[in-house]
Amino acid sequence: MKKIFLPLALFVILLASCKKEVAGPDPIDPTTPTELKANASFKWQTTRPVTVTVTGTPVSANIQRKFSVQLEDGSLVYAANHNMKDNFEFTLSLPAHATKLIYNYGSISKEVAVSGNNVAMNYLVETENGYDPIN
Amino acid sequence: MKKILFASITILISLFSLEAQTIMLDAESGNRATEQANCWAFGATSYSNLEFRISGNWSVRTNQLTNSSLGACWIKSPWIEPGKGNITMKTRLENDRGTSRAAVFQFIPYDATVTSSSKEGKPTEFYTYKWAIPLDIWVKDLSVAVPAEIANSGKPYKIMISYIGEGGTSRAFADDLVIPGNYFSSPADNCLPKAEVKDEDGDGINDEDDAYPMDKYRAFNNYLPTSSYNTLMFEDLWPAKGDYDFNDLVVDYKINRVTNASNQIVDILFTYKVKATGAGFKNGFGVEFTGIPASAVYEVKGSNIKGNVHKLEANGLEAGTKHLTFIAFDNAINELPYAGGGVVGVNTTIGAPKQKVTEKTVTLSLMRDGKAANGTPVTIKELGFDQFNPFLIVNQTRGREVHLADKAPTALADPKLFNTSDDGSNEGLNRWYKSKNNFLPWALNIPMEVTYPAEKVNIQKGYPLFKAWAESNGLMNTDWYTPSNSILENLYK
Fold it and tell me: B46 has which bridge partners?
């Protein structure tokens, strides 16, 4: 009898020690944030739409290049083919924490601060003496 | 006779148009930066609309001319290929006070060997106009022949006009400068002379700009929302409230809309990593691009679908939907298998065995050999972040979807589940997937790769500014999810 009891007990202990990993749904934590109440209209978005308006420049040559926009950390948010003479507009969904954009067009690179939902960009580079003084 | 007359007129017109090639500066833009964008350069000169301007509303005005250096006050043209003829210009002094004033004309050759980024060679003076003493303020019409050694040479040169003087306070004005020749600068390439554009695939995109220089059907990578990873976090007990640790499914993703030279979408690359499954459920994950028809896609590649919950079209999109919908995976466990340790979920319990996270990509082909799947190309304007509608499919029940707040369910969602348990969706108000009393969501999208709460840790404990952000309608603490605003010990590591 003892011989039968021992393996049986071991088997029961073994079974009990097995835990099924695929369990049911998580039990609800009583500390759910019931104290948090949002506005019914709040969309819980962590991005914001920003409309970018680019003013072209009446250049004397036909310049067709990539216009790209990136965040301060270098993440790319826009890249498309545009003529330097053309005005155009596009909308980005920017991370809510973004405060600055960097845009590039060939060798032209400029920074612009972002605070609201609209940003203006252009190709004008104002320098005191133009591109390079005499050698 | 008619033929001879026609040919003669054509030749005359051609000759006239050749002669008519000129470079002009009249300052009428009123903004010097406009001309600088066209590669004009200015030294100690500005635009002025004062009464001493020469013509129109604006002229170029120098600083006071009390320096005999040619590098003090000057105007410099862009690179041009000078033609034959005369350089003409109007100039005057602002007053008659001074002991000498002069305008000096120089040409500057291109020299690739100089270290300066401008690549300007040594200037050569070819004409000097000296004001007679006593000075006067009358407008002078200057006309100077383009030097024979540069006229029609086919080489790039700049023309530089320097103003010099001694004594007194008089400044100079300049206007209506006309130089015979062809414009030869490249405003988007440091204003260097125009160079031959290298375009291996012939798609019209400079290889320097082309992300696919050997593929004429692809040119740029366009990411949504950014080229860095973004994080989606889900609760999966919908329509019942969860524990708000937002780790029942955590997916990092980036969306690359590969575009062609016409800014049309050729492919959509959805790259993702399942970081965590804090649930015991076998959850799936899909994406709808709202407003984009399923017919816009030739083929879907890379979906990880092993079960039979989803019915697929021949192109790999999910069947029976209203908008373009693909299922990335039908069971998160296949993406991130259990790592053992006797815990529910994977990569959510601190101290339990970790499972390795792998990156995968689902590719949607919208164009082939330049042709759109349904004949109408989709542009990046038409498929933006607003169209991105990701969702979780709860525990192999196709009709039980969990979306981001206010994102509509797909056509395959079970309408009977809305407004049951804690769900407060209201189709009439376009309100979806918010709890009925507190308007809390079941899913969050974070526009950067973030760490998620550890198992059973309320998100507010990991991100203490979350509550203030939510209760301010998203106006305050907009960076609540950034690492500097998190409490690391409450997040999974």
Answer: B61
